[in-house]
Design goal:
Distance between the termini: 81 Å
Low-confidence stretches: none
Number of strands: 5
Mean pLDDT: 85
Structural class: alpha/beta
Number of helices: 11
Helix content: 40-55%
Number of domains: 1
CATH architecture: 3-Layer(aba) Sandwich
CATH topology: Rossmann fold
Order of helices and strands: HEHEHEHEHHHEHHHH
Shape: globular
Strand order of the largest sheet: 2-3-1-4-5
CATH class: Alpha Beta
Largest sheet: 5 strands, parallel
Length: 338
């Protein structure tokens, strides 16, 4: 038989704690709404594609960092990875290696892309880092449409595009070590297997790394296939080593391509700030720590196999075992397509 006195005691205790619970919930709710309004309460009335700067590159190439520097001003809207499956308005997302020739027709993709680059798209995912309430220009950042670069350039010839390239081994190692790409369900701390033995983790990391190098090659071989001088190609390594020069060059490119970007200048105080997707909570002491982050982490035979993959895709004229690119970014559009 239940003790009625004990039951009443529990009820009174619950009632006594209700004000604290209510206050805690109210605080959470207000903070959540303030955050949501801070990102999603804006008026973006400019529908010109030329007002959008499109920052594109493979995952872990520094695209978020570049986009955040470009959108640091209070009058610049930041649209985050609209082709991600987490953007609820594009169910299913975009397959990473989807390719369309410049003259190809795709009504569904075209309709969605028009909404994105004209600023009509709104969602919690894409506007999560936006802080502009009355934007006069936009930055769209994406890592899933490198293979569509030729098609996008043909559809939006007036839109300035900044294509970020980074060493395939650096991007692949970052993806693999974070458990974000191939075999991520095994490599993440709370993956499907609770624990990997050290030798098992080494084997899985190797396969994940090689898979990510292959993905990088597939994306870049298609992204470079229809490259034109109208696209501003920038190397991550060059930005890290000479940020002021690199971002000033981007400013010149953007102002020359778009009236909305005329007069825009980067804020030097934003160069060393880690991006929202960075795994570093502080900037490295020197550029070498960023550029050569993969070296010394991989077995020599894995590096050799990865280099063979790059060579077989015809991309070894861009990068080899050295940490920096081999060909000037401005000359990439003249190279023979792989």
């Amino acid at each position: 038989m239940r003790d009625p006195e004990h039951a009443w005691s529990r009820r009174l205790t619950r009632v006594a704690h209700e004000p604290k619970r209510a206050a805690k919930w109210a605080k959470w709710f207000v903070a959540k709404q303030a955050t949501t309004l801070g990102h999603e309460l804006f008026v973006d009335g400019d529908r010109e594609f030329a007002s959008t700067a499109f920052v594109v590159g493979s995952a872990r190439s520094g695209t978020t960092w570049v986009a955040e520097v470009l959108s640091a001003a209070s009058d610049t809207r930041f649209i985050m990875e609209p082709f991600d499956e987490r953007c609820s308005q594009f169910r299913g997302g975009m397959p990473d290696a989807t390719y369309l020739a410049p003259d190809a027709q795709n009504e569904r993709l075209g309709f969605f892309a028009d909404k994105v680059f004209s600023g009509q798209l709104r969602s919690k995912w894409t506007d999560q880092y936006n802080h502009a309430h009355h934007p006069v220009r936009r930055v769209v950042k994406d890592v899933r449409t490198v293979a569509l670069l030729g098609w996008l350039n043909a559809r939006y010839p007036e839109m300035p595009v900044i294509y970020v390239l980074r060493h395939p081994f650096a991007t692949a190692w970052s993806m693999a070590s974070l458990g974000w790409g191939a075999h991520g369900d095994l490599l993440r701390p709370h993956g499907r297997l609770d624990h990997l033995e050290p030798h098992e983790r080494t084997l899985v990391l190797r396969q994940a790394f090689l898979a990510e190098v292959t993905r990088w090659c597939v994306e870049q071989s298609r992204g470079l296939r229809h490259l034109t001088p109208a696209t501003n190609v920038v190397y991550y390594e060059s930005i890290v080593e000479h940020p002021s020069e690199a971002f000033s060059s981007m400013a010149t490119y953007l102002s020359g391509r778009s009236r909305a970007w005329s007069g825009w200048q980067p804020d030097p105080t934003t160069f060393a700030k880690p991006s929202a997707t960075s795994v570093r909570r502080a900037a490295p002491s020197d550029a070498t720590q960023w550029v050569e982050s993969w070296q010394g982490e991989l077995a020599p035979d894995a590096v050799s196999e990865a280099l063979t993959i790059v060579e077989e895709f015809g991309l070894s004229d861009l990068y080899d075992l050295g940490p920096t690119p081999k060909i000037a970014a401005g000359d990439l559009w003249m190279r023979s397509a792989p």
